[in-house]
């Protein structure tokens, strides 16, 4: 099974004017890495999810995500935005953006890794480690170490 | 304590698990055990029946329907949005603690007091719960619950159907009423305060201002313009009280298909002047019709259009028929009869007449009985061309005082015995001071609708006391409304205020006694009767659907 995240899916200097632009930037990384087959199709799915309810969470986190037929394998793209991107959280813009791509009808082994990831997202240590990680390889390392399916 | 939780969200890959983790951490931190069923895309591993049986309370952190929710029937439930569970998990755990304790308390109360209790309250673990708010993500932020003590309520609706097997009838009815009330309260507060403001900055004749004058001649520098604006906006908000109450009672019963019949039935209750009691009836009628119709087995072809077309259509039509023909006709005849009888009482003992008018004013607050009493007084006022005709002026004074007492008495009760009221009711209690002082009796409706059997008699006793006191003192009033803002038109205003205060104290005392009787004696700190209050404000989706009444 391919890795949930690799350094090529990390953007530590995510500079985007809004959440759609930020999502697009990260999704482009997934397309380049062969994890997503159709950029616009995938973005439409993410957007549909986002419109149901914004995915911003307290503590400066945004988690745009979708189950999409354009996703090959469950993958996380991670962006860190020094300026912040508004994902609709009450307490302000998101500095950490987790774009979670899940294949449509993925088997449960696939989905378990995403469930484990989601559970780590509520951990402050986890997000703080990501916030202070010096480079993309460190980010990918933290995620791979911390996210272990139960 | 032991809790069970279900988390679910639209996509089922992120929030579901984040909420589960957050709840687990918060429960552990508070020293509780929790088992979370994550109903995510990966399928749910169902919690076992024995874990559910052992649980003290259930938490639904769900933005979409909870699968197999009937497994949890009868347990005290706290419902929150999945996001709220993530961002404020400790609060949610606190709510669950409260719901569990409260349920325990009401079981104790039911067992202890047994005697006259209704069939429902005893074994169903009373507690709180969310009445049918699961269906729609936009509604899921509001968590309802109740606990305001369970007795069989008058409602004319059929008792438990199959789905209600878990909880007793009393509990269910209370949950339905509380759902309606919680959505109605913002309208009471907004409308009532605006109308009070209009009396404050205008004078009582502001009600004569035409709406068209606001539209065409609004002058931002004129206080009269502002008063007229506030009055009309406030009145519009009040037009929604009964439809929203009825609509969300029906929503609680039948979910979304109940909304149209409930709201329309409520609007029709206004048209036939059936007041909020008519609205409660409309909510139950519309809700149960929608529920029954939605359960009729239909072919696959029809199934898709049932909830959006067929069920609302049929349920609304039949609710309308019942409200207008079966209820409206007899009600109007009864009101006429009551009016005639009241007019025939001329020459009766004035103090008894005051008490009677007080009883009528407080019985249904804007409903038919209240209207008969109020019209009796204003007709007399219009006839009292000369100041010499002081009896009619005194009757007007008594009626207004008796109409001011209910909100004031309840506001007083919420301050004196906070624990007997839900947080939403306590908020409403704050507005009720101003509403009562302004003779806006509707300020008491949320309390009365939530717990009619205990609140309405209390209001009647207090208003009867005030009514007879005013008649005995012989206060006079030359305006048909306005509350304390027309003090200049009241004879012996100091005694008048004392009469109102006395009645309010009587009302507060009665409510506190009646509500306390139903509670466990040892319930000391916990059990404020609600786990209400959470994430998002209610009723973001309803406004546009309502007919003008």
Automatic annotation (TrEMBL), chain A:
Residues 3-146 form the PTS EIIA type-2 domain. This is PTS sugar transporter subunit IIA. One of its GO terms (cellular component) is cytoplasm. Its main location: cytoplasm. Gene3D superfamilies: Mannitol-specific EII, Chain A. It comes from Phytoactinopolyspora halophila. The keyword Iron does not apply. One of its GO terms (molecular function) is transferase activity. It holds the Pfam family PTS_EIIA_2. It is found in: Cytoplasm. PANTHER family: PTS SYSTEM FRUCTOSE-LIKE EIIA COMPONENT-RELATED. Keywords: Sugar transport, Transferase, Transport. InterPro entries: PTrfase/Anion_transptr, PTS_EIIA_type-2_dom, PTS_SugarTrans_NitroReg. The keyword Amino-acid biosynthesis does not apply.
From TrEMBL, chain B:
Its main location: membrane. It is a multi-pass membrane protein. It is found in: Cell inner membrane. CDD domains: PTS_IIB_fructose. GO terms for cellular component: plasma membrane. PROSITE patterns: PTS_EIIB_TYPE_2, PTS_EIIC_TYPE_2. One of its GO terms (molecular function) is protein-N(PI)-phosphohistidine-fructose phosphotransferase system transporter activity. This is PTS fructose transporter subunit IIBC. It comes from the Bacteria. Residues 1-98 form the PTS EIIB type-2 domain. Residues 133-160, 524-549 have a biased composition (Low complexity). Residues 173-524 form the PTS EIIC type-2 domain. Coiled coil: none annotated. It comes from Phytoactinopolyspora halophila. One of its GO terms (biological process) is phosphoenolpyruvate-dependent sugar phosphotransferase system. The chain crosses the membrane at residues 181-201, 229-253, 274-293, 305-329, 341-363, 395-416, 455-474, 494-514. The lineage of its organism: Bacteria, Bacillati, Actinomycetota, Actinomycetes, Jiangellales. Residues 116-166, 522-549 are annotated as: Disordered. The keyword Transmembrane applies. The keyword Transmembrane applies. Signal peptide: none annotated. Keywords: Cell membrane, Kinase, Membrane, Phosphoprotein, Phosphotransferase system, Sugar transport, Transferase, Transmembrane, Transmembrane helix, Transport.
């Amino acid at each position: 099974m391919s890795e949930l995240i690799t350094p090529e899916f990390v953007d530590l200097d995510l500079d985007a004017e809004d959440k759609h632009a930020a999502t697009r930037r990260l999704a482009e990384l997934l397309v380049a890495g062969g994890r997503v087959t159709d950029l616009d199709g995938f973005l439409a799915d993410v957007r549909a999810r986002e419109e149901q309810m914004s995915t911003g969470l307290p503590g400066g986190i945004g988690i745009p995500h979708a189950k999409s037929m354009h996703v090959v394998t469950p993958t996380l793209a991670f962006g860190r935005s020094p300026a912040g991107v508004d994902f609709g959280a009450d307490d302000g813009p998101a500095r950490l953006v987790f774009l979670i791509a899940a294949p449509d009808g993925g088997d449960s082994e696939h989905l378990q890794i995403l469930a484990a990831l989601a559970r780590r997202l509520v951990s402050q240590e986890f997000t703080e480690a990501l916030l202070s990680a010096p480079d993309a390889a460190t980010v990918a390392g933290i995620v791979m170490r911390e996210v272990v399916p139960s | 304590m032991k809790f069970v939780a279900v988390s679910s969200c639209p996509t089922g890959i992120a929030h579901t698990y984040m909420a589960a983790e957050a709840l687990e951490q918060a429960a552990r931190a508070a020293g509780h055990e929790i088992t979370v069923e994550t109903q995510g895309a990966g399928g749910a591993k169902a919690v076992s029946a024995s874990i559910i049986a052992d649980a003290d309370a259930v938490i639904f952190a769900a933005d979409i329907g909870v699968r197999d929710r009937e497994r949890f029937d009868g347990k005290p439930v706290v419902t929150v949005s999945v996001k709220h569970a993530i961002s404020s998990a400790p609060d949610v755990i606190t709510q669950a603690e409260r719901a569990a304790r409260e349920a325990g308390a009401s079981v104790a109360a039911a067992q202890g007091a047994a005697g006259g209790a209704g069939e429902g309250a005893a074994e169903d673990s009373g507690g709180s719960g969310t009445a049918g708010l699961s269906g729609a993500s936009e509604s899921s932020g509001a968590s309802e619950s109740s606990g305001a003590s369970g007795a069989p309520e008058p409602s004319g609706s059929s008792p438990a159907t199959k789905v209600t097997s878990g909880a007793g009838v009393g509990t269910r009815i209370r949950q339905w009423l509380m759902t309606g009330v919680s959505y109605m309260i913002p309208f009471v507060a907004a409308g009532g305060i605006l109308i009070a403001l209009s009396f404050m900055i205008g004078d009582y004749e502001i009600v004569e201002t035409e709406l068209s004058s606001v539209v065409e001649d609004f002058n931002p520098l004129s206080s009269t313009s502002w008063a007229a604006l506030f009055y009309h906006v406030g009145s519009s908000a009040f037009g929604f009280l009964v439809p929203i109450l009825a609509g969300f009672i029906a929503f609680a019963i039948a979910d979304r298909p109940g909304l149209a019949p409930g709201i329309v039935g409520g609007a029709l209750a206004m048209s036939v002047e059936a007041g909020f009691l008519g609205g409660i009836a409309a909510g139950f009628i519309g809700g149960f019709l929608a529920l029954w119709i939605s359960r009729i087995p239909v072919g696959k072809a029809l199934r898709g259009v049932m909830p959006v077309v067929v069920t609302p259509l049929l349920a609304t039509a039949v609710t309308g028929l019942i409200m207008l023909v079966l209820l409206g006709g007899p009600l109007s005849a009864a009101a006429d009869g009551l009016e005639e009888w009241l007019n025939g009482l001329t020459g009766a003992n004035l103090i008894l007449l005051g008490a009677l008018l007080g009883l009528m004013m407080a019985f249904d607050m804007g409903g038919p009985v209240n209207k008969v009493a109020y019209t009796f007084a204003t007709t007399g006022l219009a006839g009292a061309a000369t100041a010499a005709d002081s009896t009619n002026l005194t009757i007007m004074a008594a009626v207004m005082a008796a109409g001011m007492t209910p909100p004031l008495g309840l506001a007083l009760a919420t301050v004196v015995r906070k624990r007997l009221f839900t947080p939403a009711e306590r908020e409403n209690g704050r507005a009720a001071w101003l509403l009562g002082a302004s003779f806006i009796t509707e300020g008491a409706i949320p309390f009365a609708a939530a717990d009619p059997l205990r609140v309405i008699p209390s209001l009647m006793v207090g208003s009867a006391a005030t009514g007879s006191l005013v008649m005995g003192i012989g206060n006079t009033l030359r305006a048909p409304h306005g509350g304390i803002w027309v003090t200049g038109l009241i004879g012996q205003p100091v005694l008048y205020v004392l009469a109102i205060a006395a009645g309010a104290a009587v009302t507060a005392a009665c409510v506190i006694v009646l509500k306390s009787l139903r509670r466990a004696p040892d319930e000391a700190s916990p059990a404020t009767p609600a786990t209400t209050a959470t994430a998002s404000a209610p009723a973001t989706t309803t406004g546009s659907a309502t007919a003008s009444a």
